[in-house]
């Protein structure tokens, strides 16, 4: 992995206000991946490939990441970035809307990283649960959404997103097969371990 290139990719994304994973969130995910040593990761929301590239370091030898993105320009840039850091063998971009792509996937994953449309988090969870390996983990980024999720503020124009993020939290918390932690790193990270 070319770290110099990775640094450039990160700086460019930040300059362009692309919502890439924040440093403190990444630190937590790194810790999880270090322990998990995953073979297969599913990511929902590639953007320009930054998080997928970071995660690819923790894959087992022949491990792979499937990552879904619907924005054509970002897909193009993600492909270039993945090439630059020389991890093309490890990252597979699935192009299109995750709502349509997810139900067509048949594989099993050790980790699912949810980082796309907030209004779809409950649906993404349902799909992640269907494909999660035993001892796998589901992560949901931006789960606290600037604090809106934990406040009684519900007149914001993003109220549908907030309602769905709250529903996500309720579902992972009430699911007896999951052990969930919500961390205040970055924009909030939900970590749900499949303990069945
Ligand atoms: N995981 C990235 C950041 C993702 S930002 C990183 O940390 O580096 C969220 C991305 O999800 C955006 O690029 C957006 O285009 C994409 N997205 C949002 N909803 C989507 C959907 N329903 N299907 C596919 N991609 C989606
Ligand atoms: Mg995010």
Describe, in plain words, how this protein is organized in 3D.
The protein has 196 residues and is an alpha/beta fold. The protein has a single domain, classed as Rossmann fold (3-Layer(aba) Sandwich), CATH 3.40.50.150. A hairpin with a 5-residue loop joins β6 (178-183) and β7. The protein has a seven-stranded mixed sheet, sandwiched between helices. It has helices spanning 3-15, 23-36, 50-56, 72-84, 98-101, 121-131, 159-174; strands at 40-44, 64-69, 91-95, 109-114, 132-141, 178-183, 189-194. The mean pLDDT is 95. The protein contains seven helices and seven strands, in the order ααβαβαβαβαβαββ. Bound molecules: S-adenosyl-L-homocysteine and magnesium ion (MG). The site of S-adenosyl-L-homocysteine has 19 residues, from α3, β2 and α5.
Keywords:
196 residues; alpha/beta; Rossmann fold; 40% helix
